[in-house]
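so my prof wants the structure for this chain in the tokens format not the other one, which i didnt know existed until like an hour ago. anyway here's the sequence
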Amino acid sequence: MRERSEYEIRLKAIRIYEETGRFGYAIQSVHRSRGWLSKWLNRYREFGLDGLRDRSRIPRHIPNQTAESLVRNILVLRDELAAYRTRRAAFAGIGAETIHFELQRRGLRRLPAISTIEKILARSGRTKKIRAKRSSNGPPYPYIEAHQMGDLQQTDLVGPRHLRGPKEVIRFYSIHTIDVAGQTAAASQFRDKRTISLGRHLVDSWRVMGLPRVSQMDNEMAATGGGRYRHSLSQLIRLHLLLGVHLRFIPPKEPGRNAAIESFNAVWQDRVLRHPCPDLRALRRTSDRFLRYHHFQKPNRTLRATDHGTRFPGILRDSLWSALRHLPSAFTLDPYFDARGHLALPIAKGLVSWVRKVDTHGCIEFNGAEYFISRKLERQYVVATLSTHHRRVFVKFEGKVIKTIPFPFVGKVVDPIA
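here's what i got, hopefully its the right format
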């Protein structure tokens, strides 16, 4: 109705002017300005009665609009990556960041922003729906800050998984480690998840990644030893102590505290297990190819060229190699097996920690035993750290020692070898 009435007002003003020839009388009749009448008079003379109607406000030319040819190329590239048709793209993702890198690699001069690619994928229905993360209103968590490569590594295992070979179905586990700050990673596949398998994986990983200051993992029995004896220390704990690495266990049933390795686990399963592998040998070859892609072919979203000098984890590791802590060159687990073939590592001076949430009774549990801390700290996180040199556990809350607990394990304490 408004558009029609405005049209009638314009038409009335034009007709009064044509009949009387008096400009001032025409604008007084419709209560408008001289500029207003001049505008519509010119429109009328150029376009007739249609010129008195409102024009569309939609711009005829959008200077920043993405060219249709580029949109088509982005969608075709995304579909090619989803089908992983080429060997080079066998482990590639299908997101906006991967597509941006592929366009750059192909020499496109005017690269669209990653956000632009995300919008193009969304409009075409080629994006996955991601559930919004719930905000955490829980108690503060004592995270380890990882600023540099070697500050913190996280380890976890995937499995059991199965390979369908020509003769049998093979059950396996894949053990993964990632450096949180540097994003270098290692993966090993075994038919079991025994302590010796986890130990061999860590030794092989540290040989190519460097020794971390802190190694973090969940409460897998192969790592903790299951707490069978109250003051015993598992062989995996002893391995960390012997090599001067602070082992830290996250709270039970809270895998999100190891977010970096959980994310890597998901990517490894998506990119590696989609390839047909009839046996473990083929799976290991495929996994090794994926690790080379992860380190040298795919720019990592957490690395910045301005801060790290590169976006490739493998290049960053190589550039910092001389500054990292290293495994002794001749170190192996073989000399530490006893006559029965069991691993028998000594206890070395060092630290091992358990992050725990205080229960409703004011207690925490670690290494198979329960300890009273304080009812005032119910639902709060504390860190219980064993110093093997002192044979005591120091319980800290918000960085302050609030309790010490004797930990009288059996055996002498040796110096770490790394």
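also thought this was worth mentioning. Residues 68-123 form one domain.
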